[in-house]
Design brief:
Blueprint lengths: L1 H16 L2 H4 L9 H8 L1 H35 L7 H29 L11 H34 L3 H34 L3 H8 L1
Helix pairs in contact: 1-7, 4-5, 4-6, 5-6, 6-7
């Protein structure tokens, strides 16, 4: 998908610097440069579409599982809190996790149902995917906070501080693992989607 995003990005940059007359010139078989480019990269678009749909489907499954867990926790974990602050923290984080996981699933669903034209790989699809992953991270983080408040309520009263610390470290490790697993992909998508034009940046540096 990144290769497809980069190829569309390059041809757009080339179009910005070539004379306007060259864009409409045709070759010996009556094809414009744009038509030749689309034909030569048709296979790449198909591969990018396949990868994007598979990735979005996997993320929808993860978002659905998260939404199911926090939805059940909302009913099973609303009692037994002695401190109002702990109860409010649990309620807010659980609700945030539920809503953000549903929002992430909707975003990834819009990716699956997209048109998948070559121009969509330049900005539309990467932006949706980046937004979906960011919201998914918020959902997972909120779920860990809700889980942490429940663990705090249980182990703090029993003065099991060591167990409380281990659970906290484990929860933080899961969030860091999620960030590490997605960082490279999201970073490259962000660069190819939001960075300045390739040739404009080179001209500026000179």
């Amino acid at each position: 998908m990144l290769f497809c995003n980069y190829e569309v990005y390059v041809i757009q940059e080339v179009e910005n610097i070539v004379p306007g007359d060259c864009k409409n010139e045709i070759n010996c078989v009556g094809e414009t440069p744009e038509v030749v480019f689309h034909k030569s990269h048709k296979k790449l678009v198909i591969e990018g579409e396949k990868w994007m749909k598979e990735a979005a489907t996997s993320c929808i499954v993860a978002a659905t599982v998260t939404a199911t867990l926090v939805f059940q926790a909302a009913f099973s974990g609303t009692s037994g809190y002695d401190k109002l602050s702990v109860f409010m923290t649990f309620g807010f984080s659980d609700a945030l996790s539920l809503f953000s996981s549903i929002a992430a699933a909707i975003i990834f669903m819009s990716i699956i149902t997209a048109r998948y034209k070559q121009d969509d790989f330049l900005e539309t699809l990467p932006r949706k995917f980046i937004l979906g992953v960011v919201i998914m991270f918020i959902s997972i983080t909120s779920m860990m906070v809700a889980f942490g408040t429940t663990v705090y309520q249980i182990f703090y009263e029993k003065k099991a501080y060591l167990m409380l610390g281990l659970v906290g470290v484990s929860a933080c490790s899961l969030m860091l693992l999620f960030m590490a697993s997605q960082f490279s992909l999201i970073w490259h998508m962000f660069i190819y989607t939001y960075r300045p034009g390739l040739f404009r940046r080179q001209a500026k540096s000179k």
